[in-house]
Amino acid sequence: METQISNSVNELKIENNENGEEEDDFVDPWNVTSKSQTGVDYDKLIKRFGSSKIDGELLTKWEKVLNQPLHHLLKRQIFFSHRDMHNILKMREEGKSFYLYTGRGPSSDTMHIGHLIPFLFTKWLQEVFDVPLVIQLTDDEKFLWKDLKLEEAKKLAFENAKDILACGFDENKTFIFSDLTFMGQCPEFYQNVVRVQKCVTFNQVKGIFGFGDSDVIGKISFPAIQAAPAFSTSFPFIFGNANIPCLIPCAIDQDPYFRMTRDVAPRLGYHKPALLHSSFIPALQGAKTKMSASDENTAIFLTDTPKQIKNKINKHAFSGGKATIEEHRELGGDCSVDISYQYLTFFLEDDDKLHKIKEDYESGALLTGELKKMLIERVQPIIAEHQKRRATITDEVVKRVMTPRKLNFNFTDKTNK
Ligand code: TYM
């Protein structure tokens, strides 16, 4: 009999209302859509996915454990959901260690600002917890899903690694790997992949990911490859053969992979990975969709010039303002649908400034054009600075970080048992 893997894709899918019509949201690793202008209902998603809300109690505990202020993406509950974060904080209190794992599917040579979110947050986690980090570049996934040649997929992975490193990770505590290369370098990684493959049936991946009979078998077996880095024995040059718990920051679209991983982990004698889930930066056109790397007007890219950023925001950022200035002054704007305001919640760290902007926009004192200008002035330097840092990341730096090697961290100093 098959072991039940929680939450089949049907449970994640759009629900029917009493008239039998589809409503709600759809979230999986390849699609994120919502029928509502305010975007995905994340509370409902937590229930459907069976994760836990990042609530005030967890945040208070987290702040106490770290004894320093929390990242604004956490305070504002943009990272809104978790699995087993209480355990990670407890481990930290007890002086035990863990490692971080996140990733990127290199589908194009430029990433968009949505992709920055988990990486910027992971950088903070690496700093405050002082732990090693592994970053998976799933060039195999993109080869299987997209019209890409193997060599192109590998090249995109290498280029994306530069953007990732430009986020400022500690090189001595970070290992980035491309699946297409690492699989041939490390037998222990492949051994964990086949261990996972042996635990999950076709029916189960169909249920979790919605695969069909005509999907190529590479896709069907791929989830095991995204699962394996959650087990420390996949990286013997970093962890030896120690079984070290893992924490995975990502947006919630990646959760199906890790629900599967968590289900198989105990059967392999490994720890279930803990997770921190972020919400999505919506497309410029509004919160009904996620930004897409294949439609350049839906997103701000890390390669955009100041002029492109200005034009995109002015032209495409969905406004919660009223149709006329008079009406807007009288009734005020709606921050819950306004894309410029939404983006500022991700990128403007100053709570007081953000609060004042909200107040002024909702009262009608601040107009849409003025709000867009504030966003433009905030995003332009962030992207320009990113580009400056990226220009300093040479091929040699990338090669160094992508070489399997011991990281600057001694797990024998920590009592992990
Ligand atoms: P990918 O390349 O689609 O996305 C990379 C990371 O960015 C997150 N993300 C977003 N976050 C906020 N707003 C958005 N609009 C947005 N769009 C994407 C994703 O959730 C992800 O965290 N299969 C994965 C690569 C991968 C991975 C992992 C990701 C391999 N192992 C472990 C996270 C954790 C992928 O294609 O990601």
Number of helical stretches of at least 4 residues: 21
**Apparent shape:** globular
Kindly identify the CATH topology of the largest domain: Rossmann fold
Helix content: 40-55%
Largest sheet: 7 strands, mixed
Mean pLDDT reading: 91
Query: How far apart are the first and last residues' alpha carbons, in Å?
Result: 33 Å
CATH architectural arrangement of the largest domain? 3-Layer(aba) Sandwich
Give the C-alpha Rg. Answer: 22 Å
Strand content bin: 5-15%
Present as ligands are: tryptophanyl-5'AMP
Commentary on this structure:
The chain has two domains: 282 residues, HUPs (Rossmann fold), CATH 3.40.50.620; 96 residues, Tyrosyl-Transfer RNA Synthetase, CATH 1.10.240. It contains 21 helices and 13 strands. The protein is 47% helix and 12% strand. The longest helix is centred in the C-terminal third of the chain and has 24 residues. The strands form four sheets. The chain has a seven-stranded mixed beta sheet, with helices on both faces. It has a two-stranded antiparallel ribbon with strand order 1-2. The protein has a two-stranded antiparallel ribbon with strand order 3-4. Helix 7 packs across helix 8, helix 16 runs antiparallel to helix 20 and helix 18 crosses helix 20. By secondary structure, it is α/β, with parallel strands linked by helices. The two termini are 33 Å apart.
